[in-house]
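F.,

This is the one I mentioned.
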């Protein structure tokens, strides 16, 4: 893929990039990119650590299920079936 690009074309491209962005901005590009990558890696590591801590921590309790087996949003109703027999019929 790069076999068609000569050294002269790369030099011309470098000159154009220098003219567009300036040397000061290009000097700051390396450290800025490095610090952004370092922050991303540390955030990913912290996220992985917190996930593994939650799985192995005995203090973490799943409060989504109640003792009777229903969740917080569920309501158990005791249906006798009397309403279901006449609900769908039209005479």
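My design for it:
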């Amino acid at each position: 893929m790069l076999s068609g690009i000569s050294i002269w074309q790369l030099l011309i491209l470098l000159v154009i990039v220098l003219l567009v962005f300036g040397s000061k901005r290009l000097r700051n590009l390396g450290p800025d990119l490095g610090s952004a990558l370092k922050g991303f890696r540390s955030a990913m590591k912290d996220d992985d650590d917190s996930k593994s801590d939650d799985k192995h921590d005995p203090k973490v309790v799943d409060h989504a299920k109640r003792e009777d087996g229903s969740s917080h949003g569920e309501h158990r109703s005791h249906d006798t079936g009397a309403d279901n027999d006449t609900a769908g019929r039209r005479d």
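Residues 23-56 form the longest helix (34 residues).

Talk soon.
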